[in-house]
Amino acid sequence: MADKHDNHGEWMKFARCCMSDADWEVAANGPEAILSHRSCPWGGHLIKIESTNLFIQNAPEDPRDLFVRPEVRAMSKGPMEMKLRCLETYAPGDALMERTNCMWIIRLAAVLFGHGHGLWQDHFFQKVPTVSRHRLHKDFPEVGDCAYFAVEGIWIARPVKEFSQRRYRVVLVFSTPEDIWASWASPFFPTFTDMFHRAMERVLNGPGFGDMREVDKKFYIVLSMRSFNRGHPMLPQTHPSDDAVSISAGQHHGFTFWIRFHSGKFYLDEYLQRFLELLGSKLKIYRAMDGRELVPYQCVVVRQEWDQLRESFFAAFRVQKSAYRRANGGTSSPTLVEDAEPRWTGRVREVTHDIKTMVRKTFLECHEGPSGQEGVKRSNSTGRMMNSA
């Protein structure tokens, strides 16, 4: 079962303080890393260890991509510090994970700061498997940052702007159950702080982590709907009705009759989910990723799963375009853009179960190819042109 001690909400509120030097007492200040501590606002004690200027080889172009989504980390077959298994994915970057061991640097921290507390020791020494939510947030707590929330606390990476994009400030903050500082261990603090910096340097620059970044970059695909300013797109149905339009071209697919998708607020994930169900297919579709809400006319899916369905989807979707023009007149009809640039509502997501978001009705532009063919392209005219005809 999931860890009942998941303090994600508290960590979200406290994230900015993790990157501040105020109210922290420095215990060790080395040339490359700093150890500090303070009382925890929700109980216990907080330990902060930070590498102030960590060099990343082959750093990602976007500094927000330094960390890897938990569900992708679980796919790694290489010699990683933590063994993870993904039990369920709630959204890209938000997953229920089972961990069967943890980083040795965290186990060493349990010795220095754990005070022999049974539950805390069980988590960090992994006497029992730990099941908890792992979350990746981008542009949090500030634009350009990336934050990774796990049972042991929060990791935050921020590019060091006065240097190149290969330099980062990496901070780990975790809590202990008692508001007690391990003064007895002070002779070991400088060595421990230096070991933390070297461990982070080794892990984040390791070949396994670099491979995971490449997988993570292509793991999901953002879909975007355009050109339905004359009403919502159409759905197929098997029988005639007063509000249906008939398209003879749909007979080949078993869908001669088409009706308007509901007249309420438009959610692209709901429309695609219903469309695919009518085709006899299933696909998990998300409205948020990396802790942020997508605008209502966008959604995100696993690329490999989408590739298995896209041919049959576009074959039926072309008939939908004809039905849309039949119902509304004119030449425009809805277009689905693949590999779209994600756009955000501006809200940070706090997901508890399935993704549910509030959206507003919006109108979009259309790209139509010659002779009524559907042009599928990347947004901003930067990607490949894909013809679904």
Describe the structure using short key phrases:
three-stranded antiparallel β-sheet, alpha+beta, nine-stranded antiparallel β-sheet, 20 strands, 2 domains, 28% strand, 389 residues
CATH architecture of the largest domain: 2-Layer Sandwich
Distance between the termini: 47 Å
Q: How many structural units, i.e. domains?
A: 2
Count of individual helical segments: 8
Strand content: 25-35%
Structural class based on helices, strands and sheet pairing: alpha+beta
Structure summarized in a few sentences:
This protein is of the alpha+beta class and 389 residues long. Helix content is 25%, strand content 28%. It has two domains: 8-205, START domain (Alpha-D-Glucose-1,6-Bisphosphate, Chain A, domain 4), CATH 3.30.530; 219-387, no CATH class.
Question: What's the arrangement of secondary structure elements?
Answer:
Blueprint lengths: L7 H11 L6 E5 L3 E7 L5 E11 L14 H4 L10 E8 L2 E6 L4 H10 L4 H8 L4 E9 L7 E5 L2 E7 L7 E10 L12 H16 L2 H13 E7 L7 E4 L7 E2 L10 E4 L7 H11 L9 E2 L2 E3 L3 E5 H26 L6 E3 L6 E5 L26 E3 L7 E3 L2
Antiparallel strand pairs: 1-2, 2-3, 3-9, 4-5, 5-6, 6-7, 7-8, 8-9, 10-16, 10-17, 11-13, 12-13, 14-15, 15-18, 19-20
Helix pairs in contact: 3-4
Please tell me about this protein's structure:
The protein contains 8 helices and 20 strands. With 389 residues, it is of the alpha+beta class. The protein has 2 domains: 8-205, START domain (Alpha-D-Glucose-1,6-Bisphosphate, Chain A, domain 4); 219-387, no CATH class. The strands form 5 sheets. Strands 1-2-3-9-8-7-6-5-4 form a 9-stranded antiparallel sheet, with helices on both faces. The protein has a 3-stranded antiparallel sheet with strand order 16-10-17. A 3-stranded antiparallel sheet has the order 11-13-12. α3 (104-113) packs antiparallel against α4. The longest helix has 26 residues, at 303-328. The chain is elongated. The two termini are 47 Å apart. Residues 116-120 and 350-389 have low confidence and may be disordered.
